[in-house]
Design goal:
CATH topology: di-copper center containing domain from catechol oxidase
Radius of gyration: 18 Å
Strand order of the largest sheet: 1-4
Strand content: under 5%
Largest sheet: 2 strands, parallel
Order of helices and strands: EHHHHHHHEEE
CATH superfamily: Di-copper center containing domain from catechol oxidase
CATH class: Mainly Alpha
Helix content: 25-40%
Structural class: mainly alpha
Distance between the termini: 15 Å
Low-confidence stretches: none
Number of helices: 7
Mean pLDDT: 95
Shape: globular
Number of domains: 1
Length: about 290
């Protein structure tokens, strides 16, 4: 039976507590850090060589859908009534919203070292050591808005621009694709040297701290962020029913720089060996409120 993912702003205190408790249980068991390590292992960029599946590639959406679903199933083995809520960052745009409350994800990091000192994931409570990371320090870090180099969360208009793209993805199938919904929402600059980031990427930069880079799963807000990204993909499908739900259909030919580096709709995604095609629709698995 399909379960429901809710907007985090509509959660009751009891629902927040159950979600937090389930996340902390995964952390105690070591399972949470396995998800962190998996994301680090599969975070590969355009210049890294080899197959790209999680980022800078057409499979960005289906790979993260499967990743999120596996995390959600792990939570539900702790508490069957828990699902991953989503954070609509076009609406809840300030540190004052309930998302960052002491009873949910905690707030910003302190100025001196960006350490989060409030909420259930504060290091001082002894429940949230950072053990799988690409940065030093064993405490969760955030730096909302990056005051030394300020950024704002994406607006509705910026998200709408990506949602208006009629084609799922476009050559060269990486972070430099100048058109296509995937790169528009993933949010890489369309020109080399352009330091402007968009949508999904800008959210990571706004939260900052551990949300920057491959170890972003160390911050539990990662899951709420990607649940909204997944919802946006679902909405894009409804907005463009005549468009191919995934591209490329055929692999880049031998001699093409992307040959063997991106997945087609019929290929299987590591590490689960799940076909991309199986992750194009979610209604039999979960729905969004």
């Amino acid at each position: 039976m399909a379960h429901t993912r809710q907007n985090q702003s509509n959660l009751s205190k009891a629902q927040k507590r159950r979600f937090v408790d389930a996340v902390l249980a995964l952390k105690r068991s070591g399972r949470y850090d396995e998800f962190v390590r998996m994301h680090i292992d599969f975070y590969r960029g355009d210049g890294d060589g080899g197959l790209r599946v999680a980022h800078m590639a057409p499979s960005f959406f289906p790979w993260h859908r499967k990743f999120l679903l596996e995390f959600e199933r792990a939570l539900q083995r702790v508490d069957p009534g828990v699902s991953v809520p989503y954070w609509d960052w076009t609406v809840d745009r300030t540190p004052a919203v309930s998302l960052w409350g002491d009873d949910f994800l905690g707030g910003n990091g302190r100025r001196s070292d960006r350490q989060v000192t409030t909420g259930p994931f504060a290091h001082r409570h002894g429940h949230w050591d950072i053990t799988e990371a690409v940065t030093d320090g064993d405490f969760l870090m955030r730096d909302f808005g990056r005051p030394q180099n300020p950024v704002e969360l994406p607006s509705r208009d910026e998200l709408s621009e990506a949602m208006s793209e009629p084609q799922y993805d476009a050559e060269p199938w990486n972070s430099t694709s100048a058109s296509g919904f995937r790169n528009g929402l993933e949010g890489w600059p369309s020109r080399r040297g352009d330091r402007t980031w968009f949508n999904h990427n800008r959210v990571h930069r706004w939260v900052s701290g551990h949300m920057l880079g491959a170890g972003s799963v160390n911050d539990p807000v990662f899951w709420l962020h990607h649940a909204f990204v997944d919802l946006c993909w679902s909405r894009w499908r409804k907005l463009h029913p005549e468009s191919d739900p995934y591209l490329p259909v055929q692999p880049p030919p031998l001699g093409n720089a992307q040959h063997g580096r991106v997945l087609t709709v019929e290929d299987r995604m590591p590490p689960w060996d799940t076909p991309v095609r199986d992750m194009l629709e979610h209604r039999s698995l979960y729905r969004y409120a």
